[in-house]
Amino acid sequence: MIPMTLAEIARLLDAGLHDVPDPGTPVTAPSAVDSREVVPGGLFAATAGANVDGHDFAAAAVAGGAAAVLASRPVGVPALVVKDVQLALGLLARHLLERISPAVIGLTGSVGKTTTKDLLAQVLEPHGPTVATDRSFNNELGLPLTVLRADAATRYLVLEMGAGRKGDLTYLTGLAPPLAGLVLNVGTAHAERMGGGRAAVAEAKGELVEALPADGFALLNADDPYVRGMAGRTRASVLLYGRSPEAVVRAENVRMDGRARPAFELVTPSGRAPVELGLIGEHQVGNALGAAAVATVLGLDAAGIAAGLNSARRRSAGRLEIVERPDGVTVVNDAYNANPESMRAGLRAAKALAGDRRTVAVLGAMGQQADASRARHAEIGRLVADLRFDVLIAVGAGDPLATAEAARSPGQGVAVHTVEDVAGAISLATGLVEPGDVVFVKASSEIGLSACARALAGTNQ
């Protein structure tokens, strides 16, 4: 954050100053929307959610060191009062970017955004100060918060951009115009909300490449026809990446080690280099290639990109997070979120990790699947059976029951159990899991199934 006084910010946002003893008080640190994450000298943005109103925590935020509160009404402590806190936060972020000049990278996709963002950040960090989206803060609040962590020294600004509906990426790219735009894939997440089907999702995701300047770069997945078809929607230079022979940045000789970690030869215009990823699952090859494509257009050579990928590790919790218990049980916590594509990728990764070990899947609902939800849950149940998991625990009423029913395929040998809630999953799984098992846990975040993963792993984080 570039230091600015409360008076300067008030003029920029057309905000009223309330209960501010000194308008010259500097704001020197990033902003936060959670009072528990306030950094001394930063702003606390008081937003109103479905269950919690940030204005109720204004005093606690100031007591915790906030220079002031960005609020929609006076709160009894130093505050910048605006009509719309979200819009004001975005305006402040856009103003900051106009004063500094990092290379802004926007990335989107139905699956893999957070992992790819984490990989890209670790590739770029040795080459210059890098700020990247924290966790999955990729929406109209999270993106400005990321931008406001940047300062004059920032060379690379890596912004994960989520799209729940058409127009979201147009808004986000308006706040932070990208030089490079990476599109990973087009899946079924949010498809119904966007108009139905992958074509509608592609229409929304393509807003990222439409926002790129003529001297910018569009990095498109050659292996996804919907993404590849976005090439005609941008003024920017297009670079294809993927496993297809025509991809400019591609993977050759892909193989898996005994721990389900992929290795391959990275091919870029600057040469070739071996990559051995520390993450599990063959789908990580695509994520790594997306990061490599961005790094390529930013001037890194193959050797430097490979070095970053080889040393990269998982940074965000709940995404194929592995915990090894003393009794040999391996818990794979992939319960941060779920859609059909990520569910399939996670199940395959866990099964590959297990080898000939006993496997247990603890699966909850995949949210936001609309009218296709039951059918998609049934598809996951059939995959559980086809992959020959030994045990399935389906968590929750409704659609998870379709998963359970489909997994009861004759001759496949899956022991299928159903429980009503997370507490039931913890109780049943604790009793069923045997030493040496691999346990895969996944559901949409609102289900709270990560609590089951933590309980089985013996962690309290």
From TrEMBL:
SUPFAM superfamilies: MurD-like peptide ligases, catalytic domain (SSF53623), MurD-like peptide ligases, peptide-binding domain (SSF53244), MurE/MurF N-terminal domain (SSF63418). ATP binds at residues 109-115. Its EC number is 6.3.2.10. Its main location: cytoplasm. GO terms for cellular component: cytoplasm. Residues 108-295 form the Mur ligase central domain. Keywords: ATP-binding, Cell cycle, Cell division, Cell shape, Cell wall biogenesis/degradation, Cytoplasm, Ligase, Nucleotide-binding, Peptidoglycan synthesis. InterPro entries: Mur-like_cat_sf, Mur_ligase_C, Mur_ligase_C_dom_sf, Mur_ligase_cen, Mur_ligase_N, MurCDEF_CellWall_CoF430Synth, MurE/MurF_N, UDP-N-AcMur_synth. Involved in cell wall formation. Catalyzes the final step in the synthesis of UDP-N-acetylmuramoyl-pentapeptide, the precursor of murein. Belongs to the MurCDEF family. MurF subfamily. This is UDP-N-acetylmuramoyl-tripeptide--D-alanyl-D-alanine ligase. The gene is murF.
